[in-house]
Every structure is written in structure tokens, then in C-alpha cells.
Amino acid sequence: MRLFVISDLHLGGRPHTDSGAIGSQICQAYIELISFIDWVRKQAKGKGSVELVINGDIVDFLMEDDYGDANAASPWTSDESLVLEKLKLIIDRTRNGTEYGPFDAMAALLAAGQNLTFLLGNHDVELSLPAVRRYLEQQLGGTGRFRFIYDGEAYVKGDLLIEHGNRYDSWNIINHSALRQERSMLSRGLGKRMQQRTSDAFTPPPGSFMVIKVINEIKRKFRFVDLLKPETEAVLPILLALHPNLQHALQAALRAGYQSANEFVTSAEPSNAGQLSTQSQVAIPTLATTLKKVVGAEDASKFSVQATNGGELGAADSLQKLRELSANIKAFIDGKASLFSEHTAGARDELLRMGLNAWRGKLSRDEQREVSPYRDAAEELVTEGKFKCVVFGHTHLPKREVIALDETSAIYINTGTWTDTMQIPLNLLEPGAAASADFRNFLGDLKANRLDKYLERRLSYADITLDDDDHVLSADLKRYLI
């Protein structure tokens, strides 16, 4: 069998227009994606001989679209009818005004007798809800060759393991135990009772709160912040460089969504197996301590972040505080103390340079070497789990690394993303670069949303061949050329 693995499509969002407001769509490769899925179908050598695996963040429910105030983008939507409205709009959007889009191509793949597997990510969590899954199956033709893994399990075929990878990102871990309880109640028509509970309800991770309450507010004016994926602690110094007062909203996001299950016994084993529940005794980190972790203590002091963690607010109170703070973000980024204000006279430029440099360091562009914690987790999985190949997504950075073992080796692949990614010239990140004319021009491009010269679209995928006993024969990282 031949498997083709892609991830992080982030389908949906309002398209950009020259005359209207800045759109939220970050995947501009709908035509290429349709072509790729059709190409996969044509690689079949017989019934069931190929399988397309879409490894999480298939759609993006965290992006704004023309939903209306009653159904605006939210860190989490448990109302299945609202989620279905969003999904239907996404499916329609991705057709680009035609009758054939990515989901139609997937249905054609299944109709041809081939296999399709979805895994849940952290931007498409609502796809796991019962009514949403049923609708999705109907759209794909209701065939038994469609598989959806939505409960936190990895997808295993012989000595191949595939998972999204957010499990190893403390800002984007999904509490699958609470999510399962939500689905259990919804399947019995008792969803409203679950929503009324003060405990056991599903809480999305801090990264989701940061997207909805901070990043979405900023990207309405500055598109570049939407290209900082995934939404991890590495993004914090970049956002803090925009305006000092953003620290209050970021701390509230951290507190509102923090799950203590992000503590790990080993690189691949959480302290609470499978991150299935939270433990209140683990201290919630402050923004100040998190910033020190990202840029170092000396550089962190330059951001003047308060050491407080927001007092003793509970998650619900922090969410309410976050809503209040979020309403002020537009005023912040338009204000005199903002990064792009003439009144700052470049005072915040060095903060942005430090933030971008730290972000780049946390997510290395070296396609032959993964960074921690993903590399450490992969090594433990191939060592303890005896897997010959491990495939992640989530980071948006395609990679293929050979992991040396005692007597053999294993392959790690990250399938990257089909969205555009931002490539920043290295000379702009060097110490002292913030005072250069090139950096000032770069800031001008960010302010005016002139981003084309910094964007790259890789269209990466894993091409994996298994023998009849599901042993990995080959595993390669490739780019699709239309």
C-alpha cells in the first residue's frame, strides 16, 4: 500500500479582497489541493491500494468568517448547529465558486475504492462532535473506507505511527477526556446541560484563546501575525513588541486556557496519560517566566512584562477578563506606544527583532533536523514503541530526519503545511539589524501588508510505501508540483 500524508490545511476563512477588509483565509492553495487529491487517486494500482491521510487542522474553526455576531469565531463551539453552519460555509468557500472543491475530490477518492483517514488537530476540534461527524461522512459519500481518529489516539499501521503533534506543544494540548464527555452528552441530546456545568466542561488550550482574543484582533490590520504558526510561547515576544499593553491579554489567555496536563514524565509520556484530565496542583506559569524561557532572562527584561500571573482568577473569570481586554487591542495597535507609531521612534524595533529571532530559533528551518519537543518525542516513540517511521504535522515546517538507533535507524517526517509560511531574511535578525535601512523597509512592508516577497508555499507531503504486512518499505518527504 502507498500512503500520502498531508496536514495543516487550515481550510476556510474569509478571502482577501483589494477593496474590503483584510480577510482571514490563510490557505491560498485550494486549486493545488484539489489537483493533489485527484493525483493521489490516480496513483492507485487497484482497489484499496492508496490511502490519503490528512493529519489534523483540516479546517480552521478559529478563523473569522462571515458568520455573524451570533456565530463569531470562538476558542470552542459546543453548539453542533453552529458548527455545522461554519463547516458548510468552509466547504462552499473551498470550491472557489465551482461545483468541485477539496471535499468533493476526497469523495471521488473514496468512490474510486481508495482510503481516506482524518486525524484531529487543534484548530478543528469541533469536527469531532457527533452531528458534525455524521454530516462530514455524508459529504464524503458515507463509504466504509473513510476513517476519522478524533479521540487522541495515534494512527498506527504496522511500524508506522501518525499523529498531529500538538500533544507535545504545551500551548495547544487538547484535553480529550473533557472533550469525550462533551461528545457523550451531545450524542444523547443533553449538550445544553453540559454547557451549564461549572466543572468537567471542555476548555480549549491557551493557543486557541490567543488566536481568538489576541491574534484575530491584530490581524484585522496586520496580516503577518496570522502567519506565526503554530500559536506557541515562541510567538509571545513578537506580539509583545507590537504594544506593551498586550501583556495583559496574553496573560489572561494563558490563564484561561492553561491545562496542567502539559507536564510530561518523559518526552512522549504526559504525567496524566493521554492528557485526559487536569491537575490543579501544577502551578500556572506567568507570562514573565514564559518570556524568559523563550528569549532568555536578559532580553526578557527589555520587554518590561509584569511578574504577576493575574492574581487568583479562575479560568472563567480569566476568560471574562480576556474578553474585556480584547476589546482594547485595536486601540493599542493604533496607539502612540505601538510598534508602527511614529511616536516610538523605533524604540520597539529591537524588541521585534529579538522576538522574530527567538521564534525562528524555536522552529528551525533546517529540513533535516527537528527541534524539541517534537524530535525528543519522536525518538522516544521509535525507541520504545518500535516504530520505523513517525509522522507529525502541527509546526508548519516540513522535515525529514533519520534517527539513529543502536542497531538500525528510523525515519521522522513532519508534513508541514499547505498554507503560506513567512520566510524572514536572516540579515534582518542579526544583532544591530534593527537600526538598518533594510529593517525599516521590512517594518514598512509589515505595516502596509506587503508580504508577498516573504511568503513561501511548499505543498509538502509524505509518500510512504508499506508491504503486505504493513512494514514501512520507504518514507519520503516531497513537494507537490502542479
TrEMBL record:
Q: InterPro entries from the entry?
A: Calcineurin-like_PHP, LpxH-like, Metallo-depent_PP-like
The terms under GO molecular function for this entry are: metal ion binding; UDP-2,3-diacylglucosamine hydrolase activity
Annotated ranges, domain Calcineurin-like phosphoesterase: 1-179
Listed A to Z, the keywords are: Cell inner membrane, Cell membrane, Manganese, Membrane, Metal-binding
Question: According to its UniProt record, what is one Pfam family this protein matches?
Answer: Metallophos
Q: Tell me the Gene Ontology biological-process terms attached to this UniProt entry.
A: lipid A biosynthetic process
Q: Name one GO cellular component term.
A: membrane
Tagged with keyword Cytoplasm: no
Report what the protein is called. Metallophosphoesterase
Please name the source species: Comamonas testosteroni (strain DSM 14576 / KF-1) (Pseudomonas testosteroni)
